Amino acid sequence: MTENPEGQGPLAPDPPDHVKRTAIDLIAAYADHDRDALERVIPRATDDAEAVRSELRIISAFLGRRVQETGVVWKPADSREAVARTVAEMLPPELEFAVSTAWEAHTVGEEEAAERLTRGDPMVYVHMLAAFGAAIGSAVYKRAELVSILRQVTGLSE
């Protein structure tokens, strides 16, 4: 654990590389609309759901800033539609519905409703954030660029 540069206490330890890879692999599977790749990465994501969720939050924040910096217009409604489109037919219907409706609640600030819609399943959040990362990342990067940039940002080597 290292010291926070702003002097506000220690930073959280860097997540293990396999967690970073899993987060990026989830985003890549969604960006490619590759159900087989998604099915292969889900067991790894499930094993480390909370750590993967945390990493996906960081990646989503980075991509959100990149969208703002590039001037691409991205509104909450765009996010809701993009996530729903991204998970469509990639997940079993009940999980697809949970992800889409929880994300919709999340984007309008209804965190309690979003939490209720996840039914305590951290993988719903993992899918929400991975689909969002794929959708918003694809708004500013080509697929190969997206994966490469995410590897660089997370500190993974190519």
Summary, kept brief:
The chain is mostly helical and 158 residues long. The chain has helices at 17-32, 35-47, 49-70, 76-87, 93-107, 111-118, 122-140, 143-154. Helix 4 runs antiparallel to helix 5, helix 4 packs across helix 7 and helix 5 crosses helix 7.
CA-to-CA gap between the ends?
25 Å
Q: In terms of structural class, how would the helical and strand content be classed? A: mainly alpha
Mean pLDDT: 87
The radius of gyration is: 15 Å
Q: Encode the helix/strand succession as letters.
A: HHHHHHHH
- Total helices: the number is 8
Task: Summarize the structure in words.
With 158 residues, the chain is mainly α. It has helices at residues 17-32, 35-47, 49-70, 76-87, 93-107, 111-118, 122-140, 143-154. Helices cover 74% and strands 0% of the residues. α1 (17-32) crosses α7 (122-140) and α5 crosses α7. The longest helix has 22 residues, at 49-70. It is globular and about 35 Å long. Mean pLDDT is 87; it is low at 1-6.
